[in-house]
Amino acid sequence: MVDKKKMRVVNNKTHSVDGKGLMQGRSYYTDDLAVQGSLVIKILRSPHAFAHIKNIDVSEAQKLNGVALVLTYKDVPHVSMSRAGQGYPEPSPHDKFILDEYVRYVGDEVAMVAAINEEIAEDALKLIKVEYEVLEPVLDFETAYENKSIIHPEDGIYEMFPIGFEPKKNVAATYEMEVGDVEKELAKSDVVVEETFYSQAQAHAMLETHSSNARLDEHNRLVIYSSTQTPFHMRRIMSTTLGIPLHQIRFIKPRVGGGFGGKQCFHGEFFCALTTLRTGKPSRFVYTREEVFGASYTRHPMKISLKIGAMKDGRINAIDCRSLSDTGAYGEHSLTVFMIVGSKVLPLYNKVDAVRFGGRVVYTNHVPAGAYRGYGAIQGNYALESTIDILAEKLGMDPKKIRELNSMREKETSPIFEIMGEGTKGTAMIMESCKLPYCIKRGAELIDWEHNWPRKVISPTKVRGYGMAIAMQGSGIPFMDMGSCSIKLNDGGTYMVTVGATDIGQGSDTIISQIVAEELETTVDKVIIYSSDTDLTPFDCGAYASSTTYVSGNAAWKAAQKMRKRLIKEAAEFLEVKEETVKFDGKIFISGEKSITLNELSIKLLYNKNQQQVQVTESYFGHVSPPPFMSAYAEVEVDLETGEYEICNYVTVTDCGTTINPMLARGQVEGGVVQGLGMACFEDVKYDKKGNLLSNNFLNYHIPTHKEIHKLTTEFADSYEPTGPFGAKSVGEIGIDTPPAVICNAIYNATGVRIHKLPITPEKILKGLKELRK
Amino acid sequence: MLVKFYLNDVEVSFDVAPNEYLAKTLRSHGIKSVKVGCNESSCGSCTLLIDGKPMMSCSILSASIEGKHITTIEGIQEEAAKIAHYFGEEGADQCGFCNVGLALTVYALKRELKNPSEEEINNYIVGNLCRCSGLQSQLKAIKAYLKEE
């Protein structure tokens, strides 16, 4: 354990390494780096929710002056794949072709045009004649299972290992687990509550739209710049799908303008690759905002039913959770998001005697669902943490007390960890760091729970309600996801760090620089970092599953430790002393009377004696996935006449171990909270009865702004995770998990109206109030 | 058609299509600091100053700016560095995509409103969407910048 008080860079305020440059307009986002004069790519998209292409005639489009390439399903490799951007083998079904003779949602790709400019590309799209056989779509996920409309009737699609894939029944994945005997424990319970909740699709709405571009380098290798979270996975998947040797492809992730999971998957990369390979010319593809909403991914909508049994004293005996998830037209992340509903939620209440989780993920003719910050945990948290409050009321208990009594504590475990992984079996682990009891206690103090809960009447028409929830997440996927880091000594005594870790705005370049600087006792400005280039940086699984701080951070820490040892060895050789006698303070190596500065040593090593490039590489994969924990409380003021409400204060207390960068950790928590509040309060992906997307811009899909967010109170618990870098756990996702349940509980406490279907809108509250008055 | 205007106080003349918007014109002339997040004037990423007023350049016809003064972030580098400092202090600068447009808006706010209330600040910057920061840290950073003499 490293003494936090002695840390000089880690756990200290450090500005983002790239914040100033980006604010000054340095242009390093994907489309900023496209080759001037690139062919512009546009996609003809399906106007039908489900159809078979009977005929497609592109001859007029091809004849248009300025059109370089037109592609339909007849012109691309017929190789099924998953665009999910996951490790190998993927836990998502291989159910997508680059282009196909079926289109499965309004917006699905029909054909591609590449032209010398945008206007000609758009004109060419209008010249493509398509004859569709319109099929009956499945637009209600509760009717998808064994529906007579089969969304994936085609041959050549498959699962890489058993995930319960049954396309003829519209099932992308299935999962079942049970610990103990749930039926028996429920029967034994004094009180059983049974509730069903619905969570909606949510749009990622990152500010930079999906963007990629391609060129051939001087070796005729394919170079793709992409706003991706997973450059190494993309290179692998592109190689196998297009049948190009992997070493002939280079993926570069420049600066990314927000991801939230939405950029884990493929978007335009295949089209850029095909255009550039077939024409020899550079190409670029930038999604319009409408395409981001209507032709990328959303969060999986779900129906979650819970039964919880408890004894009169408040002890929870059993939790039974049945879920149904809507993966839309394709099955990216279908199984893994589904499993997280259980595996990153149910262990919160680890003292149960029995727990059961299961259900299926079904296809519908909606925009496909994919990875999204929280990844199933937010859906599960909404259902479980709302039901816990309902149980507490039935038992006549304070909801804070029932959580204190039943929730996870340090040095405890849950059998779920060993049973449930991400698509596969999990990994047993003990909570070496869990300050959840402190988080609950401190959060209650910050909101003055004792005096305020459940409600405070402000006026005859205004009431303030108080709600709470707890949450957990993970820190990477153990035994699966790997991160690595190389450190090179420059002359001048500075360090060049290359990592595969993917900075998408969350600040991984900054926190990795801090970890290296801390270990090598230098400052962040002496560390130059370059990340996510499949040619130049070592491998990393990418930015997902809350892995960066813990997995990539551990790799950086290991590499820095190795560099430190190596520098001492080189200094000892130079000073002609034993290694054990050398002390290094980041600037100078001292052994007795002898000394050499790092600067001098770095120059000698390159120019004068035993010349060599000092460079080290280390990799890390987790043996556990230590969860960050959180408590959250909200004060919500409701207008009883209109149902409108305002969030007066949202309090969170988080245990993410050591905060490598306290300000950026706060940014992760608050950014997550606000995105979660959007989902809780108003964000809603809506379709009409034919499956046309209605919420396709920022005016009809509202995201939280400065008008809605008033006060966030964000604190961290003093915690140290022994397996983490300088005691850290990850913190990228957990912030998003609590708002739906917290707001639901607060609204109930204010009004007596329990909202079972997100988002929690004034209309639903008003309707509930009217029903109560009957 | 040829349009003549002042780009960060330097007179330029660009050949533009009559239906071309300013964000596209500037980006195609290498001014890539202008970010396009929606291309339908609803996110604020493409904000720049036209005669000192923040405007969304994705929806301003290039042909309409004849003789006007356009300020991009390149024109206020020192102020951008100052704003970045306050954002850094609050950890408010995440992905950075919205930051250039926001910095220009905040720069204009400081010159337009003296001692604005929190509500006035929020009203002024509400059109600059941000999905990363959680917004409160931005507000704190902006307040600190506005206080600076």
How would you sum up this structure, described in words?
The complex is a heterodimer of chains A (774) and B (149). With 774 residues, chain A is of the alpha+beta class. Chain A folds into 3 domains: 4-27 and 482-621, Aldehyde Oxidoreductase, domain 4 (2-Layer Sandwich); 34-135 and 215-258 and 263-294, Aldehyde oxidase/xanthine dehydrogenase, a/b hammerhead (Aldehyde Oxidoreductase, domain 3, Alpha-Beta Complex), CATH 3.90.1170.50; 302-424 and 445-462 and 627-773, Aldehyde oxidase/xanthine dehydrogenase, molybdopterin binding domain (Aldehyde Oxidoreductase, domain 4). A 7-stranded mixed beta sheet of chain A has the order 3-5-1-12-9-10-11, with helices on both faces. A 5-stranded mixed beta sheet of chain A has the order 7-15-14-13-8, with helices on both faces. In chain A, helix 17 links the parallel strand 26 and strand 27. The longest helix of chain A is centred in the C-terminal third of the chain and has 28 residues, at 548-575. Chain B is α+β, with helices and mostly antiparallel strands. Chain B has 2 domains: 2-74, Beta-grasp domain (Ubiquitin-like (UB roll)); 76-147, Orthogonal Bundle (DNA polymerase, domain 1), CATH 1.10.150.120. Helices cover 37% and strands 15% of the residues of chain B. Chain B has a 5-stranded mixed beta sheet, with helices on one face. The mean pLDDT of chain B is 97. At the A-B interface, helix 1 and helix 17 of A face helix 2, helix 3, helix 4 and helix 5 of B.
